[in-house]
Amino acid sequence: MNKQKTYILIALALIYFVSSASIEKQDKVYSTAPEGAIVLFDGSDFSQWTNCDGGEVTWKIVDGLMEVEPDSTWACPKIQGIMTKDSYRDFQLHLEFKLPDHENTNSGVYIQKRYEVQINSSFNTENQPGMGGSIYRQKIPDVNVGKPKGQWETYDIMFRAARFDPDKPEEKVEDARITMLHNGVVIHNNAIIKSKTGVGFPEGKEPGPIMLQDHLAKVQFRNIWIVPNVPIETLPEDKK
């Protein structure tokens, strides 16, 4: 089986999984994250998070929901927002977000502080590099499934980190890859991420945290969990 078919099967399995992975109760979601998952936010606290400068999180928890508290001082280098205390290499990430019902809806998920998956309104919009679900300025989604502002949306991200030569740590031998579902629909299928995106930090062999961006919009998040994957150093041969 070639690796493209493998990723399609993984994505289809994930569609089934995420459709049954939570229970709705009065606009809140009580996660049933899979065995081995690390729950990054369950509505109770920021114990898994730190501010982008390493200090205490200044965002709010409102009725069990994480809410961006915009900071116009731009005090952190490059990316403003919060980040996980732990770093990750290969993983599967689930999160849910709701965009505020006004003009500025911008946020993002930064993988390893390097690669941004854009959070923005894409409902009834033309395809553009900064649309919701895009790999920032590198690849737009294969299909636009964004919902209207004020409705909860989901991202499920399967990420394989870039690989570097063990003997020459500065030499990249394989680009990062991403398979991603937006609202249960595959929008990136084993897509290559050619380099760091936008203001992301330089690529490297070291793992990195997950960052949620503060772009001065009161975006809300809930039900965030991650499953670190056992790294497979070499992808299988693509036999056709």
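[next item in queue]
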Amino acid sequence: MIRTPLQTYFYFGTAVRYLQDVRPGEPIADDTHGGRRIRTNLTSVLQTMARLNLSSSLASDAAANLRRLLEHLATAGDASVLSNEQHRVLTENIDNLRATLERELGARHTYSSAPPCAATHRAPDDPAALFAPRVYAALPAMARFDIEEAARCTACELPTAAAFHLLRAVAAVLQAFYASNASWRRTADHTELFRRLGYLRAAFRDPCRHPDATFTAEEAQRLWTLSVEAISGMAPALKEAMEADAAHPAESAYLS
């Protein structure tokens, strides 16, 4: 799957429209204030078609003609303006290209995430935002991996897959929690943490072990909340261990 900001599609359309509306005598190069002119917009259109793999449009005669035109414009000085002949070539071919694009894009689809909440929507790009400061960095690598995978599954409306990854993430943190020598783990009252973990086991982990188990989007969202709470409840032990390793790197390397 190609990861593309939605702004790319917005600018792609405006660039095509700009090229259709230009007139002879307009500047070829960008202006000194950052305004994008003919050369930049044409470059962007061709590059975006390649990035989105619009094969029919890329193989069209119009695209080939526009590439040749761009080669000529690339050698023009920054003070150059569009000639009448260049304008003719540009408008004829950008109109033809737009017709091809509309046919090809009509058969293509892009997908945007449908998150149950803003937090899980942000997780693929910023998973640390789900947790209090410095919690995410202290988690085992496998837990971080599964949290990101769960967020992607949630965004793609795959709640059962999201539940699978969330439960794996909790299990990875739980293993690290019990392996930790942090004093907080040995001395703090973990009654509420164990209650949450027990509920997760009974309501989600045990059912998930059955091959025919499925979860709804609402159940997955509930699991998100419970998982973040449980992981955050174990995080102090992991943070304490991480801080100790940072303070005594040689010793922690020897012990490992």
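[queue empty]
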